[in-house]
Each structure stands twice: as C-alpha cells, then as structure tokens.
Amino acid sequence: MKTGRLLAFGCFAAIGVGLMSCSKADVFDSNAANELKKEQQEKDYTSNFVKKYGAVEGKSWDLATLATSYTLESSNRALTRDGEYNADAVEGEMFVEKATVDWMSENLKAGKNNTAKGKPFYLQVPNNSFTIVPIFQGTASYYWQLWMYVDGVGEKLIWSKGDIKYITSQGSNDWKSPGTGNTGMNNAYQIKAPTYEFKNLPENANMYFYLKVWNSYSDFQKNTINPRKLTSLNQMMLALINCQVPSKVPAGNEVSIIGCEDNVNGDFDYEDLVFMMYGNPAPPIKHVDEVIKGTPKRYMMEDLGEEKPDFDFNDVVVDVISGRAKWKREYEILENGGWNLINETKIEDLPDIAVVRAAGGILDFTLTIGNTTWTKSAKFPNYQQMLNTGRDGEIDYEKELDTFKVEGWNPTANNISVTVEGKAITFPETGKAPMVISVDPTTNWMFERTPAPESWFKD
C-alpha cells in the first residue's frame, strides 16, 4: 500500500515536471516571438521613416531651444470651477475717432523702445461685462491672433489680424485695410473697429492676454508651422490708462489701451497691435511683482503600437519644466509714468514638474522622467482611450491631463523614456530614426493619423 502511494506520487510528480517544462517552453517561445516582432517593428519603423523624411545619419532630434517661460504662481491661476462659464463674445462694431489714434501714436511711438512704460501684467475678471476693441495694427508683416486665457474657463481666440478698416479723411467712403507700408494706419482719420463683449465669466478669476505670431499668413495657412506665443506676463504687452476715450464708449466706463509687441527680437514699440478694453469697471490690471520662471521642454513620442507607424507623434506628449523658481521683481517709476525693472531676487527654488498634454496610444504605457514614473492606466483606468489627439475633431493645446513633480531630471541628457508592453523607448541617439523628439512648447502635436510635417525633420 505504501509503495502504491509512492508510485502514484511519483507519477503525479512526473506529470507535474512535464507540465512545468511545457509551460516554460511556451513562455520562452512567446517572449522570443515578441522580441522578434519588436525588432522587426523597429526595422520597419526606420525604413518607413527614411522613406518619408529622408536620411537620418548625423541628425539630432533634440529640437528644443530651452527658452525661459514665465507663469503666475499656481495658487493665483488655479480657480475652483463651480459653474459653467461662457467664453463666447457678443460681437459688434465701433467707430473710433482720430483723437484716440493720435493719443495712442504719441504714447506708443513707432520705432521707439517703449518698454519702460509698462510692467508685465495680468487682469482680474470684474462682476460685470467688459469689451475688447482692436483699434490699431502696425506695419509688420507677421500674422498673428489675439488670445485671452481665463482661469477656470481656458483660452479664447478674440481676434485675427486684418479685420479692421480705416479712412484717411472726413467724409471719405474709401475704407482701407491696414497694410505693411510705411504709413499704415498712422494717417487714419477714423477707424471702424470690431468689438467683443464678454459676459458671465467667473468673477475675480485671473486672466491674461497673448499673441500667437506666425512669420507670415502663408505659414498660418499651412497649419504645420507653429506660432510664437507672446504674453502679457513676460512684458510683450503694456497697458496704458488715462487715455483718450472714444465718444462711442458708454459713459461711466473705465478704459485701458494695451499695446502688443509681435517679435521677441523686435523694436518693442508695442504698436504692432493696439486694443482698447473698457467696462464699468474695467478688468483691474495687476502687475506681476512675483513670477515663476522655468525652462520648458516638450517631448512627443510614438509607441510602436501598430504594424505601420503613422508618425503623428501624439501617443505621448509631455512638457517637462526644469529650473523652476519664484522671483521677486522690483521696479522704479519713471517721470513719464512708465516703469523700469531695477532688480530681480530669487525667493525660492521650486521642483521640476511634468505636464501630460496628450496620450494617443491605445496601449498602456509607463513614462519615466529622471527618477519619476507615471503610468497612464493609474490615472486613466480606461487607458485605451485616445486623449487630446483630435480623434473627436478637437485638440486643446492648453489642456493638462495631469501634472506631477519630477526628480532626477536632466534636460541636457534627455533622460526620459516610455515603456510599452515591456519595451523601453528612449531618446534616440544621433543618426537613429526617432520615436521620441524634443521641441519647444509652442510646437503643437498632430491630429490623430496626421503625419508630422517634413519640416520638423529635414535640414
């Protein structure tokens, strides 16, 4: 009887060993097959990339310029949204007299550096409506759009260059469009300007303005050449008060005139676009005495999730901001009422952060930045959902899918990777077909299934 039990046990043990052996072989074969598949995918990816974008030898994919960015402290910009707000404007029209144009031209002289007349600023939404009126544009050939960002609501396009008319003499019916000639609108007698009245925005929310600037209208039409983003936070705009008020502005309204510069290397005369803002009261202008400075770098990634790559580089899009610190700015008031920056003092260093902007792949992934990891499924259990890639027809380029602190980050070494199905995709060496590239944060990612433009990868 004892022997029988031993024999039976021996038989079961033999069967177990056999099963275990088969199991190991299956796992080994499966892993080997996966590795072979990934190797072939990478070869195909390289071949297809070269066919579309040309040779990769000697090319680096670190395309970011590491320009300094300026933001308000997060506590100022993070508004708890307790209602639905309407960011759409009621459009209208207003006639602006020569007296206002002359006042603007005198205070924002073309070709003169007017920087000292205005500090970096943001604004606060009043408990009433307010109106924005573009009244002047200079002779620069750049194409731009005026945008507004409101905490808790997001960004809103206000106006695109060109939708403005003027006449040069009383009684004239020859309404001209601003051109790029030397005279431009400086000889305007009257301006027919569009108006945009904003209502029902969250009271006391912080907001700021910025220009999106393309080198030309044809660049804007291509939709593949990304604009510069010039904000009122980093002194690319200045606000003037006590200005000449057009007669059509309703009585009792406060009026500000805001001048914009459209080139970070320009003449800083701030008359490339001039717009008026009024309300009863007008949105209060808050000067930025404390600002957070950092160096952002955007990474766009492909995850090899398909047999044939689409090169839309939106499977992972993340901004990593290093060197963050809060700075105190000190100004002196000039005799003409302008401002001059006399000192900047660092208040405190802040942690590096990462902002996930888009996640287009249907595969789960783990993003590694320095010593920090972030997994899509941990934040979004339905990880197969394509997030902010235009699959539904829209992309919000300001959207933050998630923001987290980063440790051990080196923007020069590009120590970033994404792991998909056990395969780590790292920043490419020079001369390798890239699955990860770095760009400036002004570079927008592509819509789903839309290949990145050849200009990104060709000399």
How would you describe the overall organization of this protein?
This protein has 5 helices and 24 strands. The chain has helices spanning 2-53, 74-77, 98-107, 217-222, 376-379; strands spanning 69-71, 89-97, 121-124, 130-137, 143-150, 154-160, 165-167, 190-198, 206-214, 228-231, 237-240, 254-260, 273-279, 285-287, 290-301, 316-333, 339-349, 352-358, 366-369, 372-375, 402-406, 416-420, 423-426, 436-439. The strands form 4 sheets. Strands 1, 15, 16, 17, 18, 21 and 24 form a 7-stranded antiparallel sheet that branches. Strands 2, 4, 7, 8, 11, 12 and 13 form a 7-stranded antiparallel sheet that branches. Strands 3, 5, 6, 9, 10 and 14 form a 6-stranded antiparallel sheet that branches. It starts with a helix and ends in a 20-residue tail after the last strand. The relative contact order is 0.16.
Class from secondary-structure proportions: alpha+beta
Note the beta-strand portion. Answer: 25-35%
Q: What average pLDDT do the residues reach?
A: 85
Distance between the termini: 84 Å
The unreliable regions are 1-25, 74-81
The value of Rg in angstroms is 28 Å
* Distinct helical segment count: 5
Topology, number of strands? 24
Task: Assign a percent range to the helix content.
Answer: 10-25%
Order of helical and strand elements: HEHEHEEEEEEEHEEEEEEEEEEEHEEEE
Overall spatial form: elongated
The main pleated sheet reads as: 7 strands, antiparallel
Secondary structure layout plus pairing:
Blueprint: H1 2-53, E1 69-71, H2 74-77, E2 89-97, H3 98-107, E3 121-124, E4 130-137, E5 143-150, E6 154-160, E7 165-167, E8 190-198, E9 206-214, H4 217-222, E10 228-231, E11 237-240, E12 254-260, E13 273-279, E14 285-287, E15 290-301, E16 316-333, E17 339-349, E18 352-358, E19 366-369, E20 372-375, H5 376-379, E21 402-406, E22 416-420, E23 423-426, E24 436-439
Antiparallel strand pairs: 1-15, 2-8, 3-9, 3-14, 4-8, 4-13, 5-6, 5-9, 7-8, 9-10, 11-12, 12-13, 15-16, 15-24, 16-17, 16-18, 18-21, 19-20, 19-22, 22-23
